[in-house]
Amino acid sequence: MTQKHTTPDGLVIVDKPSGFTSHDVVAKMRGIARTRRVGHAGTLDPMATGVLVLGVERATKLLGHLALTEKEYLGTIRLGQNTLTDDAEGEITSSTDASKVARDAIDAGIAKLSGDIMQVPSKVSAIKIDGVRSYKRAREGEDFEIPARPVKVSSFTVYDVRDAVAADGTPVLDLVVSVVCSSGTYIRALARDLGADLGVGGHLTALRRTRVGPYKIDTARTLDQLQQELTVMPIAEAARAAFPRWQVDDRRARLLLNGVRLEVPDEYAGAGAIAVFDPEDRFLALVEEHKGKAKSLAVFG
């Protein structure tokens, strides 16, 4: 008798290769994990590499809540050239000698793009405008505007400034940067806006995501490694790492699983998603505080 294959519930932290869309990685993981129930928390552009959080089986219910978390990136911004896509994937639309741009002007430009800012995403992005993806509108030559939206750039640091010469002979500057930001922040839009502020244009030439919330690049596995050995972070461990933990007694655990809205202790007020565990440390549910009561987001018990 053949043994039925069972895929464990949990998160898979992938080190995404360049040239793959997030959907490509999901499709690959469906084959590796032998299940259709795979999703991702927050996309990464095809050019970018690094941390992509996937959920397998019941852990897909965690993903929408993980997507709202803080991200960290390492990247290279080229000053002196604009591109159609604000990154190295698009054709160059303008070139300007950037060799005379001073370091203090760069620092001042970065200061303007730090903290709570309003950002206009790239037109070649997956944002929906009236139900249609922005990149689709751009490809079809439509003239449209994307409204600015609030994002938070907690840290924007320049590690190195390198003189370089672009393929068309333009003297450019390559900035090696790190960015810690809220979900929904476009690093290529930061590159575009920094270049615009300095009057020379700018775009992103390399990007690596090194962290999504508590999940860091050192725990990520390449698709080849996952093909050899599927490494799944159990759902309870994933929840413990990402959300505040609320342990309830057996009586409250039973009430919660029967749909009763428990009173939430004051310490969790305004905490967002909360992971609820029973006395045996079993992960029961993800809830949020609403008018003092636990509103269920997803049940796992």
From TrEMBL:
Q: What is its EC number?
A: 5.4.99.25
Location of the tRNA pseudouridine synthase II TruB subfamily 2 C-terminal domain: 243-300
List the catalytic residues.
D45
GO biological-process terms attached to the record: mRNA pseudouridine synthesis; tRNA pseudouridine synthesis
What is the stated purpose of this protein? Responsible for synthesis of pseudouridine from uracil-55 in the psi GC loop of transfer RNAs.
PANTHER family assigned? PSEUDOURIDYLATE SYNTHASE TRUB1, TRNA-PSEUDOURIDINE SYNTHASE
Q: Which family does it belong to?
A: Belongs to the pseudouridine synthase TruB family. Type 1 subfamily.
UniProt name for this protein: tRNA pseudouridine synthase B
Instruction: Name the lineage.
Output: Bacteria, Bacillati, Actinomycetota, Actinomycetes, Kitasatosporales
